[in-house]
Amino acid sequence: MASFVLLLILLSPPMSLPVAHCNDDSVGFQLKLTHVDAGTSYTKLQLLSRAIARSKARVAALQSVAALAAPVVDPITAARILVTASSGEFLVDLAIGTPPRYYTAIIDTGSDLIWTQCAPCLLCVDQPTPYFNARNSTTYRALPCRSPLCAALSYPACYQKVCVYQYYYGDTASTAGVLANETFTFGGTGTGNSTTKVRAPNVAFGCGSINAGDLASSSGMVGFGRGPLSLVSQLGPSRFSYCLTSYLSPTPSRLYFGVFANLNSTNTSSGTPVQSTPFVLNQALPNMYFLSLKGISLGTKRLPIDPLLFAINDDGTGGVIIDSGTSITWLQQDAYEAVRQGLLSSIPLPATNDTDIGLDTCFPWPPPPNVTVTVPDFVFHFDSANMTVPPENYMVIASTTGYLCLAMAPTGVGTIIGNYQQQNLHILYDVANSFLSFVPSPCNII
Ligand SMILES: *[C@@H]1O[C@H](CO)[C@@H](O)[C@H](O)[C@H]1NC(C)=O
Ligand SMILES: *[C@@H]1O[C@H](CO)[C@@H](O)[C@H](O)[C@H]1NC(C)=O
Ligand SMILES: *[C@@H]1O[C@H](CO)[C@@H](O)[C@H](O)[C@H]1NC(C)=O
Ligand SMILES: *[C@@H]1O[C@H](CO)[C@@H](O)[C@H](O)[C@H]1NC(C)=O
Ligand SMILES: *[C@@H]1O[C@H](CO)[C@@H](O)[C@H](O)[C@H]1NC(C)=O
Question: What is the pLDDT of residue 63?
């Protein structure tokens, strides 16, 4: 709190020119998604272990909250911790201000706020580019307290008529500063062949002067959640899609925004039709992408899982979230156990959990020559749509340790469908119409 008071004292709204409100209804662009570990010299196994560790940190924070005395602290805090406790998995390039200053940011479908660290910084974490200095931009404008987007904050505050925000990601990550309007620039960084530069004026963002956490070699975050402050909600039309290449592929994944986000022209691998399932609104966590999951099959065998295990509880806990920033899928404990039992009965090898990769359901690999192993497809049965996950997207061969492991983990609180299970699917989040669509696609072929 002391640092927050200090923030209020030191912040003085910089002077700048007013800008017109002119959001274009046909904004569209595509961006390269860079994996946070891209360009490092880790081995494939180390990369996967690191991703699993990050995802464990993301979920562990929630379990520590759930372990506190009931009632759960407050569900908003709980779920924010659920998917945003640690840094995300993908980075995008964008630019802020006029003239545009380029930087890299973590994209996060589990939170809303767009923010970067601003000078003068009271408490900042390491970042690769200089802090954004509002005095150098002609389009910066602090938002007044009466601004509707100020009211959309969970913890708005007012200082000299300027909107001050505080945003918490669970564990130790947080950001606080002035909520401001700026012009952002997307594309045009030489990251894609057909990428054109799009300038978006009047985007509300957090100019963070007190920040804590780990920005994973980026200079900020871009929220893609369902709430009013996210980039997808602020730019029209409010939809985006992404196509994640194979986990360890050198070809970067892609993010499509606005009019560029559609599955009609997707290069599909199997002639499988586009499938769609509605988002479910969790009143306690309205900015998160909840789905209605009814069951799971391994191959054609429907597993004995009570659909109620995937339901959202009255207190806002539970449910099923699709997330881009969690690597492996976290399954509600009893559902995980059913999947584990299903695998044990279809894979004729002795199961083990004695591995160094941090996964609990593993088999010795490769199998002895006289044993034939056929790993079935994994199917998520959503409301009105089935998502078929082939073995390479839910099992992982930890080759140096000699194991085939289920790339999923159990959790006591809700289910998170992670990005390992989303490889080579083109997935569209239609926020305006509240549904998710997906189609199998070789994402390395643009
Ligand atoms: C931005 O502003 C700061 C201080 O106002 C100044 O020191 C710096 O040189 C400026 N940078 C640019 C690129 O103008
Ligand atoms: C900020 O941008 C929004 C559009 O996103 C616009 O409605 C609003 O008037 C702007 N506020 C200021 C103070 O310029
Ligand atoms: C590993 O398996 C053993 C016995 O099968 C079990 O007691 C133990 O709890 C398991 N450990 C984990 C982390 O699942
Ligand atoms: C495979 O061969 C090993 C010995 O080489 C034997 O112990 C095992 O029972 C065989 N398994 C099957 C399924 O035939
Ligand atoms: C999903 O799969 C189930 C079981 O195979 C089938 O009964 C159902 O019709 C499928 N739904 C869709 C939308 O394809």
Answer: 52
Task: Assess whether 430 carries a catalytic annotation.
Answer: no
Closest ligand 5 atom to 379 CA:
2
Q: Give pTM, 2 decimals.
A: 0.87
Testing ligand 4's pocket by substitution, the residue of 349, 363, 370, 371 carrying the most ligand atoms inside 8 A of its CB is: 370
Q: What would the pLDDT profile of 384-437 be if each residue is shown by its tens digit?
A: 999 999 999 999 887 666 889 999 999 877 898 999 999 999 999 999 999 999
At the second CATH level, the architecture of 275-440 is Beta Barrel (2.40)
Q: CA 411 from chain center: how many Å?
A: 18
Q: Determine the distance separating the centroid of ligand 4 and the alpha carbon of 338, expressed in angstroms.
A: 28
CA of 101, closest atom in ligand 1: 13
The amino acid present at 5, given as its one-letter code, is V
Domain 2-36+88-258 and domain 275-440 have a common topology: yes
Instruction: Please tell us whether the domain made up of 2-36+88-258 is placed in CATH 2.40.70.10.
Output: yes
Domain ranges across the chain: 2-36+88-258, 275-440
